[in-house]
Inverse folding.
C-alpha cells in the first residue's frame, strides 16, 4: 500500500477511532473542516486536495443521529465535487438500522431511505460494522461490506476466561433473543471448546425499548454467562435478561455488545446491576465514541480499529477481505487450544 495515496478522513463522531486506524496503518489523517451557520446548517470542506484520489470517510451515525447523517452526506458531496475518484464511507455504527421493516401499519422503512440518501450523495462503497439486521445490505445498489465483530468479541471472552482461570465446562454463551442466535453462533465458531454451549433468552416486545422475558432455553445454573448483543440502547432489555439468568442460578454474568449507545437512564441502570452483583462487567466496542458522562464502573471499551484498518488496507489493495477473518480465527483457535491443554493439566 502506497501510504501517500490513501486518504482517510474522520468526521465529527469518530475522531479518536479515526486516529487509531491511521496510526495502525501508518498514514497521516487527511483534514476536513465542518462549520455550522447560526441556523444549524452545516458546511464541510476538505483542507487537502482529493482530485483523482480514493478516499475513506469514517463517521458513525449515532446521537445526534440526524446531524451526523447530514454531515456525512454533505462531506460526500463536497468530495465528489472536488473530483475524488472513489468515495468509500466507513460507518462503524449505522443509525436507523432498527427501522428495517414495517412493524406496524403506516410506518416508514427508514434504513432504506438512509441507504438511498447515501447512494444519491455519490458514495461508491459502504463499510459498516455489525448491522442490526443483515437484510439492510440489500437496501443498497452499491457494494457494502458488513463486518462482524465476532472475532473481537470471541477474543475478549477467551482473554476473560484465561485471566480469571475459568472452567471451560462452566462457561456458556447467551443470546438475548432468538434473532441474535446467528451472531452468537458466529462468536462460538471462534471460541470453540473454551465455552460450553449456547442458551437463549425468549422475550417479547410490547413496545419499543421495552421487553418481557418469557423463559430461558438452556441450562445456566452455576455457569458463567456471556450475553452477546449487537447494541445497548437504554439497557432495559439486556438487564432484564441478565436478571432472569441470575434467577435461574447463573454464577457470573458478562454483557458484551458491539455498539454502546447508553441512552436515557442506561448508565444508572448499568451501575445498579453492577453494584448489586447481577452483572460483573459490561463490554462494548468503540464504534461509538462514548463521552465521559456515559462511562461507569466496570465498563470496558475494546477497539475495532485493528479490524477496520485491516479491512481498509485489504479493500484498498483489492485483496480478499475473507482472508482477514481467517487469519484472526487461526490466532484465536491457537490460544483456545493452548488454554484447554494447560487447563486439563
Amino acid at each position: 500500500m502506497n501510504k501517500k495515496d490513501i486518504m482517510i478522513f474522520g468526521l465529527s463522531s469518530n475522531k479518536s477511532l479515526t486516529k487509531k486506524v491511521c496510526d495502525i496503518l501508518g498514514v497521516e489523517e487527511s483534514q476536513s473542516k465542518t462549520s455550522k451557520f447560526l441556523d444549524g446548517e452545516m458546511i464541510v470542506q476538505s483542507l487537502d486536495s482529493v482530485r483523482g484520489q480514493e478516499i475513506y470517510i469514517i463517521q458513525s451515525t449515532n446521537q445526534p443521529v440526524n446531524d451526523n447523517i447530514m454531515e456525512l452526506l454533505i462531506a460526500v458531496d463536497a468530495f465528489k465535487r472536488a473530483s475524488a475518484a472513489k468515495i468509500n464511507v466507513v460507518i462503524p455504527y449505522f443509525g436507523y438500522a432498527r427501522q428495517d421493516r414495517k412493524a406496524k401499519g403506516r410506518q416508514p422503512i427508514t434504513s432504506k431511505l438512509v441507504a438511498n440518501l447515501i447512494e444519491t450523495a455519490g458514495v461508491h462503497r459502504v463499510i459498516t460494522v455489525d448491522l442490526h439486521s443483515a437484510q439492510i445490505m440489500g437496501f443498497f445498489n452499491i457494494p457494502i461490506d458488513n463486518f462482524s465483530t465476532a472475532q473481537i468479541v470471541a477474543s475478549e471472552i477467551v482473554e476473560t476466561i484465561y485471566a480469571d482461570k475459568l472452567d471451560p465446562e462452566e462457561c456458556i454463551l447467551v443470546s438475548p433473543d432468538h434473532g441474535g442466535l446467528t451472531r452468537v453462533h458466529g462468536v462460538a465458531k471462534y471460541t470453540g471448546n473454551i465455552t460450553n454451549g449456547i442458551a437463549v433468552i425468549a422475550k417479547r416486545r410490547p413496545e419499543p425499548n421495552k421487553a418481557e422475558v418469557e423463559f430461558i432455553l438452556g441450562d445456566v445454573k452455576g455457569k458463567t454467562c456471556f450475553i452477546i448483543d449487537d447494541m445497548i440502547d437504554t439497557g432495559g432489555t439486556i438487564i432484564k435478561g441478565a436478571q432472569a439468568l441470575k434467577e435461574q442460578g447463573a454464577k457470573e454474568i458478562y454483557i458484551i455488545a458491539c455498539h454502546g449507545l447508553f441512552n436515557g437512564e442506561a448508565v444508572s441502570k448499568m451501575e445498579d446491576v453492577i453494584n448489586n452483583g447481577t452483572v460483573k462487567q459490561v463490554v462494548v466496542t468503540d464504534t461509538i465514541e462514548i463521552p465521559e458522562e456515559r462511562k461507569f464502573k466496570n465498563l470496558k471499551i475494546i477497539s475495532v480499529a485493528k479490524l477496520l484498518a485491516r479491512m481498509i488496507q485489504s479493500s484498498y489493495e483489492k485483496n480478499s477481505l475473507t482472508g482477514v477473518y481467517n487469519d484472526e480465527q487461526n490466532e484465536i483457535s491457537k490460544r483456545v487450544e493452548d488454554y484447554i491443554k494447560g487447563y486439563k493439566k
Summary: The mean pLDDT is 92. The first strand starts at residue 7 and ends at 10. The chain is about 35% helix and 25% strand.
